C-alpha cells in the first residue's frame, strides 16, 4: 500500500513537471546534508564511533497545482550524527502526502503536521537539529463551514524513527471566533474559544488486569485580545496510564497554562504560568526519551543565545512542575537621556520552577508547591547602538539549576553567574566583525568557564569564525572550534572543525543529551 502510494506521487510529480509548461504547476524543494568525520580525543574522552563518518540528509519536494498539492521527503542517516538516535540509521521516504484545499475544506492523506491549541494536548512537528520528528501518517480534515468556526479531525499513526509506531491516534479540535460570530469589529477585540479531544489506542497483552489500552485527553482554551492587552489560557486533563516514565503512577494527568501580555508604545510585558502533573502523552506506552511524544511541553524559560548560558538548560518536567516566567522589554527613544542618539533596548526575564507537593508517596497535588526548587533564572540584557558602526550587547545571568532533579537523579545543585559582552563593528557597507567574551562563575559542577569568539562576515557571501570555550580550575580543557561559510544565491556551504562538549542541546525549549565528540563538519543547504 505504501509503495503504491509513493509510486503514485512520483508518477504525478513526473507527469506534472514534464508538462509544467502546459499545466502551469509549481514544484519547489529543498536539500540539506550535514556530515561529520569523528576523531578520537583522549583529552575530552570523546571516542570515534564504529563508523567514523556520520551523515544526515534530507530531500523535500512539493508540487502544487490549483487546489491540489502533493509532496515527499526522503531522509538518509548513514550513519546518524552523534546525538541522534542510532535507530534512525538507514534511508526511507518518511513523509509523503496528497492534499486538496479550498476556502472551506482541507483534506490531507498521508503524512502531516498539526497542532491543537498551544500544543499541550497535541502537536506533531519537526526539529531536525535534535533529531525530533513526530509527524502523523493517516488522514486529516480541516473544515471551515463559516468564517468564525474552524473544525479539525485526524486519524493515524505517529512516526517512529523511519517507520510508524503501533499506537493509533485520533483527534478532534474546534474553535469559534466569538466576536466575528456576533458581527463585532474584529480590529478592536478578539475572543476565541476552543476545545480538543485526543485518544490513543494501543493493544495491551500484558498480565496486569484492567490496564488501559486507550488513553484519552481533552482540553479547553480561550484567547482574548483588546488594544495593548492579550490573554491566553488552556486546561488539559488526561486519563491515567502507568508507565516506566511516570513510575507506574495511577494518577490522572493535568496541565494548566495562563499567559497574559501587555504591549505598549515602548514597553512589553509577557507572563507565562504553567503547572504540569503526569502529562507525558505518547502514542506508545513503552516509548522513552523524545520518541513518540504526542504533546508539546517546552521549557517556558528564556531561550538563551549564548554558549555558557546553555550549559545548564532547563527541560520541562512532565511528571510534575509548577512555575513560569515574566519577560519585560523597554525601549529608550532616540535623543532621550538614556537612549542617546540611536536609542537603547533593555530586556529582563525571571523564571522559576518547583516540584509539586505530594499527598502521599504516589499522588501529587495539582497547583501546589513542593519542597524542591528545580530551576531559577534572572537575566537582563542591554542592546545599545553606540555609533553608526558600533553596536554592543551586554548580558548578565544569575541561574540556579537542580542538576540532580533534572538530569542525574542525584542531589547536585548548581548556582552560576554569567556575564556576556557582545560587540559588533561595521567595517563598511558589506563587511563586519563581531566578537563575544563570556564568563561563568560557579563553585559547583565543573567550576568556572570562559568563552571567546571572533567572527568576520562579508555579506551576503562569506563568513569565518574561531571560538574557544575553556574550563579552568577543574578540567582545564579548551574546546576550540573554527570554520567558514559561503553562500551563493540560495545555497549555503559550511565547513567547521573542533570539539563539542558533552551535555544537553536545546532547540525551542526541547533538550536532547549529546555526548562529547571531536570532528570535522561539512554541511550544505539549498532550495529551489
How would you sum up this structure, described in words?
The chain is mostly beta strands. Among the domains are: 150-297, no CATH class; 300-488, no CATH class. 6% of the residues lie in helices and 57% in strands. It has helices at 2-18, 20-23, 178-181, 403-408; strands spanning 26-39, 53-65, 68-77, 90-101, 105-112, 114-116, 122-124, 126-127, 132-133, 136-143, 149-160, 163-177, 189-201, 214-226, 229-238, 253-263, 267-277, 320-332, 344-354, 373-385, 390-401, 414-426, 431-442, 448-458, 462-472, 477-488, 491-500, 503-507, 510-514, 517-527. The strands form four sheets. It has a 24-stranded antiparallel barrel. The radius of gyration is 25 Å and the shape is globular. The model has no long low-confidence stretch (mean pLDDT 92).
Q: How would you summarize this macromolecular structure in one to three sentences?
A:
The chain is mainly β and 528 residues long. Helices cover 6% and strands 57% of the residues. The chain is built from 4 helices and 30 strands.
Strand content: over 45%
On the 0-100 scale, what is the average pLDDT? 92
Evaluate the radius of gyration.
Answer: 25 Å
Number of helices: 4
Which residues sit in consecutive blocks of at least 5 with pLDDT less than 50? none
Overall body shape:
globular
Described by strand count, sense and barrel closure, the largest sheet is: 24 strands, antiparallel, barrel
Structural class: mainly beta
- End-to-end CA span: 30 Å
Number of strands: 30
Q: Which bin fits the share of residues in helices?
A: under 10%
